[in-house]
């Protein structure tokens, strides 16, 4: 995927793509400082986080094809082995994002590789004070078997309201 970024965004070379990923990760770290969001199951740790897409810099959002909007969110999933937290594990992901009355809110679900890390990115739309239910299955490709099941709910806010 990293190699494809310069073709998709001609002015964004591999070095800038890596920098964009670093900026994205650094932007996300302050939100993680209070509480780690991770699902631990057997030898796996599934890290996950949600954020409003306006928290991404325009360059980072553009490099990953994410539309920035006050009413759009981003879910990031990263699977790792519990005994090797520095290495992402290749995985397959599927899932849904629904509101409390069952309306589907998931816009796009895709796999991204950058700087040796493997992520699943899911974009979704939401309204102010809307509660969404996230339900995902993540299967490590190196060890077929029962997938990790991630389920959680979040009440979301539109910035500036």
Itemize the secondary structure elements and their pairings:
Layout: H1 5-8, H2 14-32, E1 38-41, E2 44-52, H3 58-63, E3 72-81, E4 84-88, E5 91-99, E6 106-114, E7 117-125, E8 131-140, E9 148-155
Antiparallel strand pairs: 1-2, 2-3, 3-4, 3-7, 5-8, 6-7, 8-9
Number of domains: 1
Would you tell me the structural class of the helices and strands? alpha+beta
CATH fold-type name: Immunoglobulin-like
Helix content: 10-25%
Integer average pLDDT:
85
What report would you give on this structure?
The chain is an alpha+beta fold. It has a single domain, classed as Immunoglobulin-like. It contains three helices and nine strands. Strands 1, 2, 3, 4, 6 and 7 form a six-stranded antiparallel sheet that branches. A three-stranded antiparallel sheet has the order 5-8-9, with no helix packed on it. The chain is globular and about 45 Å long.
In short:
The chain has a single domain (5-155), classed as Immunoglobulin-like, CATH 2.60.40.3340. Helix content is 18%, strand content 45%.
Provide the descriptors you would attach to this structure in a database record.
9 strands, six-stranded antiparallel β-sheet, single chain, 161 residues, three-stranded antiparallel β-sheet
């Amino acid at each position: 995927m990293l190699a494809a970024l310069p073709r998709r965004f001609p002015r964004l070379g591999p070095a800038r793509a890596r920098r964009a990923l670093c900026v994205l990760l650094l932007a996300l770290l302050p939100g993680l400082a209070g509480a780690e969001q991770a699902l631990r199951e057997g030898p796996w740790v599934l890290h996950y986080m949600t954020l409003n897409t306006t928290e991404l810099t325009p360059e980072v959002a553009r490099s990953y094809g994410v539309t920035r909007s006050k009413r759009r969110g981003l879910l990031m999933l990263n699977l790792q082995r519990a005994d090797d937290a520095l290495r992402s594990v290749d995985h397959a992901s599927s899932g849904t994002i629904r509101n409390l009355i069952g309306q589907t809110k998931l816009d796009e679900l895709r796999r991204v590789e950058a700087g040796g890390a493997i992520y699943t990115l899911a974009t979704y739309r939401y309204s102010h004070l809307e509660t969404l239910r996230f339900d995902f299955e993540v299967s490590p490709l190196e060890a077929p078997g029962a997938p990790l099941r991630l389920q959680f709910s979040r009440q979301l806010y539109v910035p500036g309201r």
